[in-house]
Amino acid sequence: MGKCDGRCTLLVICSLQLVAALQRQVFDFLGYQWAPILANFLHIMAVILGMFGTVQFRFRYLIFYAVWLILWVGWNSFIICFYLEAGNLSQDRDFLMTFNTSLHRSWWMEHGPGCLVTPVPDSRLAPDDHHVITVSGCLLDYQYIEVLSSAIQILLALFGFVYACYVSKVFQDDEDSFDFIGGFDSYGYQPPQKSSHLQLQPLYT
């Protein structure tokens, strides 16, 4: 029962991670955030492998999933520090998220709750084929939305890591107990040996 409960809980966590990652992927596509798009894609693949390993009792897939979650926590921690401008990080380098291929920023910058976007005509700051805008009246700034999204990802990853380690330990214990019972050990059933010698008895008449 404990093993089933752990597997079911891990599947629920993986499902929540998958939904959160797909939702995040959509908004990153809308904002042309290529670095997060690549990270989200790898995360989705790792979560699917984790779900497959949980259902099919694959120990190695769960270990891979757990290791990836450590990297995922590190990536989301970097995003939080980036948008909060911790250390030497600055949002003036926001184009790092697009691999410096475009001037787009987070989709939430213009489409956040309550945001009012006003274009600035004939601005000398605008490059070719671009325009300058001002954003005001936002109930929640876009950087805090990105931070909140990353915090949710970290929370789900921590729960997923704990349950992945627990379920993989249960799988390993089951394999060890199966071998101990006599699945493939040397104390299991052995067929009778055929004798290569025939004993002759004298015949009296």
UniProtKB/TrEMBL annotation:
<dbReference type="GO" id="GO:0005886">
    <property type="term" value="C:plasma membrane"/>
</dbReference>
<feature type="transmembrane region" description="Helical">
    <location>
        <begin position="62"/>
        <end position="86"/>
    </location>
</feature>
<dbReference type="GO" id="GO:0002028">
    <property type="term" value="P:regulation of sodium ion transport"/>
</dbReference>
<feature type="transmembrane region" description="Helical">
    <location>
        <begin position="34"/>
        <end position="55"/>
    </location>
</feature>
<keyword id="KW-0472">Membrane</keyword>
<keyword id="KW-0325">Glycoprotein</keyword>
<keyword id="KW-1003">Cell membrane</keyword>
<comment type="similarity">
    <text>Belongs to the NKAIN family.</text>
</comment>
<comment type="subunit">
    <text>Interacts with atp1b1 C-terminus.</text>
</comment>
<protein>
    <recommendedName>
        <fullName>Sodium/potassium-transporting ATPase subunit beta-1-interacting protein</fullName>
    </recommendedName>
</protein>
<feature type="transmembrane region" description="Helical">
    <location>
        <begin position="147"/>
        <end position="166"/>
    </location>
</feature>
<dbReference type="InterPro" id="IPR008516">
    <property type="entry name" value="Na/K-Atpase_Interacting"/>
</dbReference>
<keyword id="KW-1133">Transmembrane helix</keyword>
<dbReference type="Pfam" id="PF05640">
    <property type="entry name" value="NKAIN"/>
</dbReference>
<keyword id="KW-0812">Transmembrane</keyword>
